[in-house]
Amino acid sequence: MKKPKHSRDAGIDELKVGGLTLHGVTRGGVETCLMVPELKLMFDVGMVPGGALGYGTILVSHGHADHLGGIAYFLAQRRMTGLKPPKVHAPEEIVEPLRRIFAAWGEIAGRPLEVELHGHGPGARVELGRGLRAFARRSTHRVPSLAWVIERESRRLRAEHVGRSHVELAALRREGVEITQPHREIALCVTGDTQIELLRDDPLVGSARVLVHEVTGWDDRRDVAATRRWGHTHLDEMIDHAERHFSGEALVLVHRSMRHSRAEADRLVRERFPAALRERVHVFGR
């Protein structure tokens, strides 16, 4: 199996996997902002890395500054460049505090920040257009937080017509034969910050074609117990649960603590994950 290619520029990482491009920055406790151009979706806005201003829909996991600290600047820059107010979907518990923050920044700047702010609880379904919908799942962190599961609907050729030529298919269409049918898949799940219980207990999360899951602790410098106290996942826990609970194409590990280098993380994936899973595991973030 050919491993996907990464490209890095000025702190931004990029990974093409599962028919999607993951582009952005993810450093535990420092900055998380993940863009997926094929879906026109951005997850969190800890800062505003290159390319982020072009995204009009943001799905927010939680309110910690490394995941949401760049939001006021993002809104101001969108307005300054003449872009429409973005749609921001966030945990319902942080909507009112965010409105107060936006009001304060508007007062400081002498001009209101413009945004469509929507709060959601666990189980919410958000229609995003273009055949996409998002499902909010309750993640397990120190503050109210959500994982976002993205379902994509398309049309695919019916099984009985697979292998027919373009000429045959065109003739069937002219005869009024319905040659395609709706197809739905869980294309992506981005967990945000969470303990392993999210993957262990929520089958929808583990069924995603591409699962972007945090792994903050990677060795005994912060062991499993200490990692859990901060509401995060440790590599030991991911190794224990991934083979049983993840059935998708790519497991992308993000939010690595700055204690651990990228080279170290790549080595631990090669050495510690079971062979049946190893080729589907990818480290993301410089």
Describe the structure.
- With 286 residues, the chain is an alpha/beta fold.
- It has a single domain (6-283), classed as 4-Layer Sandwich (Metallo-beta-lactamase, Chain A), CATH 3.60.15.10.
- It has ten helices and 15 strands.
- It has an eight-stranded mixed beta sheet with strand order 1-2-3-4-5-6-7-8.
- Strand 7, helix 3 (95-109) and strand 8 (116-120) form a beta-alpha-beta unit.
- The chain is globular, with a radius of gyration of 20 Å.
- Residues 5-9 have low confidence and may be disordered.
Brief overview:
This protein has 286 residues and is an alpha/beta fold.
Explain the layout of strands and helices:
Elements: E1 6-9, E2 12-17, E3 20-27, E4 31-36, E5 41-43, E6 57-59, H1 65-68, H2 71-80, E7 87-91, H3 95-109, E8 116-120, E9 125-129, E10 132-138, E11 146-157, H4 166-174, E12 180-190, H5 197-201, H6 203-206, E13 210-214, H7 224-229, H8 235-245, E14 250-254, H9 262-272, H10 275-278, E15 281-283
Parallel strand pairs: 5-6, 6-7, 7-8, 12-13, 13-14, 14-15
Antiparallel strand pairs: 1-2, 2-3, 3-4, 4-5, 9-10, 10-11, 11-12
